[in-house]
Write the structure tokens for this entry.
Amino acid sequence: MSHVPLVPIGVDRSSAIDLRTYDDYSASNREREQLLVERRAEVQAGWGEKYVERVHKKGKLTSRERIELLKDEGTAIHEVGSFVNYGLEYDRGAKSPAAGVVTAFAQVQGRWCMVIANDNTVASGAWWPRTPEKIQRAQNMALRLRLPTVYLVDCSGLFLPEQSNSFPGARGAGHIFKMNSLLSDSGVPQLAGVFGDCIAGGGYMPIISDRVYMTEQAYMVIAGAALIKGAKSQKMTSLGIGGPEVHVHQSGCADVRVPDDETLIACLRDEMTRLPSSGADFYRGGVGEIDPHFPAHELTGLLPTDHRESYDAEQVLARLVDQSLFWELMPDLGKEMVCGVGRVGGLYAGFVINRQGLVDSAEHPGQKHPAGILYREGIAKIAAFSRACNDDGIPLIWLQDISGFDIGQEAERLGLLSYGSSLIYSNSTNTTPMFTVLLRKASGAGYYAMAGLPYDPVVQLSTCLARQSVMEGRTLAIAAFNTKLDENFEITAKDPAERDKIAKSMKAVEDRIEADMDPYVAARQMDTDEIVQLAELRDWLCSLVEMSYQGAGYRRVKNPRIWSMHDLQVMMGSRA
């Protein structure tokens, strides 16, 4: 029973798809992904070279230079929230790339960490609308995975012209400090480096950290010198009020003073060596990471950009899991869904993915029905699988390409609402780490049921093809103008001018909805955590799964001898 019956899946590219179609899909996807590369570079530039030079003239590093120095050489940085506030303008046309803060997963001394760094090239690291929510989202990821959290603080406080959009409310700036407290209460290590301005809320952020370092240029103050001089007519400097001389040697609000940025980063790296090492190698059981038999970069040519075209879900899995080996559970049930277990970076993870095209209907033997939709048997199947992953402590990855739930009289008679509630309950109460990837469509209640962001996955990723909506633009336009259409959805008005007016109005609704489904819109308003290239998915999943196994002892992780999945396999009458 300890044997996990992993078997080869997938076929090589030439057998999966013809070369011409593969090249067409690749070209279309590469065009979208080139735009992603360009927009990432735009965000990472902050307010531009002039502001980078301004930082360097002060003898300081930029936030991204600090992260590069902090992380282990040769390892990846996985940034989340890159496109928060993307394209928005605030007071006097000011922009806030990445909401003025970098939040990223990075490896430091072999341990995955969450790094939160104020972007000192954007309004001196000020907090904009959505900056607090973005920081809190990163803190929540760290809390869920028990990742050491490193704050690189260089923050001038709230961007005051927009204070009403970032100060009050349940997720206003003050909630950051509650998250600091929850991390501390859960025993998650927090390290802080203070590099410069650290005013008001920025001054509070490092204080609950377990270790606080300050450079000679740094200061932490509730109110800066300018405000105090205005209120009390006193001559002073912020450095004199709350610099390292005060907080290291007098107040005790900081632990160590260091001369410069580079020394501080070196100290943080040294601190990390004192923490427990990752438990991932223990859970690998001597099995190392092995690349998929079919290369992950081929995903770019396997997924059509037109969401109405289908593809083989098995080929996607074969390019994500180690050696392209997979154990599919309950393969004869709910064939519109695939669920099972594979290794990712040498560690076990559960996968759920929507099949596309036509599949056998459970309700009508001998007939086919469209996949990419949740039917009764498929819902029950993935709900049971979700519970099994949670029971066995296996991280669960949801690969969404879903149009929603089945609808109609038969669907209601079969109780899809009830079955959907069971799935939603399972995903709402799971404690095992869950990660969601929006491959293409993420529509209606199907997006919710398959662990969409409202159901609190640790991280939700979107590809450049992802589309989040209740319904497609054309469908919504028909619904909005239903009273003016016949049974074939044709406009009933006889007057040419009236027909033209209705047609234009329907087209305007359709275009607006299609624009709203752009993944950059979702990322801008924090409806997804990050946009990634298809070829990057494998590396992202390897990292996220390893993070899930890094912290030992805080959650149940069973060895395969006592997996409930083996029982599930037997009860379903399935044999390896």
Notes: The first strand starts at residue 7 and ends at 8. The CA atoms of residues 78 and 105 lie 5 Å apart.
